[in-house]
Amino acid sequence: MLNCSQATELMSQEQDRPLALSERIGLRLHVLICTGCANYRRQMIVLREACRRFGGWDSR
Amino acid sequence: MRLMEPDRQSELNALRPDLLRFARLQLRDAGAAEDAVQETMLAALTGSHSFESRSSYKTWLIAILRNKIIDIIRGQSREVAASSLADDEAGDDLLNESLFDRRGHWQPETRPGRWADPEASFEQQQFWAVFEACLDHLPAKTARVFMMREFLGFETDEICKETGISSSNCWVVLHRARMGLRACLETKWFAGAGT
Fold first, then answer.
1. Pick the CATH number of B82-192 from 3.30.830.10, 1.10.10.10, 3.30.70.580, 2.60.120.10
2. CB-based contact (8 Å) between B187 and chain A?
3. Would the CB atoms of A57 and B174 count as touching at under 8 Å?
4. ipTM score of the complex?
């Protein structure tokens, strides 16, 4: 079972490379029972969106 | 809105500080940033496009600037060698230790909460000032790799090639950057935003 530290690593890496099936399953199970990491995952998406806008990929 | 020549010149001057800040954050070198912006402005003045709005003009400028920055980075030697990333790592274990307990779980006080309405934050200029300050707060080389990925759109294997670090090292650096940026935004913005 993943701990939160390992889960945050995978949540970063899923933005940079396709995760292996076992990693995806492990992460999905972890996020299901861990609200902290579920929030963290949403925040990773917010970060990426913020970067897109800041970098002028989208108008703001 | 069709921007005519004189208007465009003044728009360009008005946007110059934004361009310069963007280039400085990315290049961490005032001289190189100045050059990149200069070239961008020159290119912008010789182009003849029409734009819907000021923000689409800015988007277009940033796209030119981004390419100038990529050229500069490609032209530089591999100065972000793995060894020099070690300076950035000093605080990393500390960061991890204070975030997680011995078993690698969030400490009660560091467990991420919910961020209220990020879209509303994006609308506020103050948010972008905080965002920029948080980026600026990241260790220089960490920020550089992060910005290559997120702002310049490099894939990680390209980052490895340009900086001479391994992919696993690259993932670690990106993870560290996101972790740091998230924590900074949480403390400096979202925690106080009435969540």
1. 1.10.10.10
2. no
3. no
4. 0.93
B61 touches chain A (CB under 8 A): yes
> What DSSP string describes B88-127?
HHHHHHHHHHHHB-TTSPBPTTTS--PPP-HHHHHT-HHH
Q: Do B122 and A44 touch (CB under 8 A)?
A: no
Q: What is the pLDDT of residues A1-58, one digit of tens each?
A: 899 999 999 999 999 999 999 999 999 999 999 999 999 999 999 999 999 888 766 5
Chain B CB within 8 Å of residue A14 CB: no
Distance CA B180, CA B102 (A): 20
To the question of pTM greater than 0.95 for the whole model, the response is: no
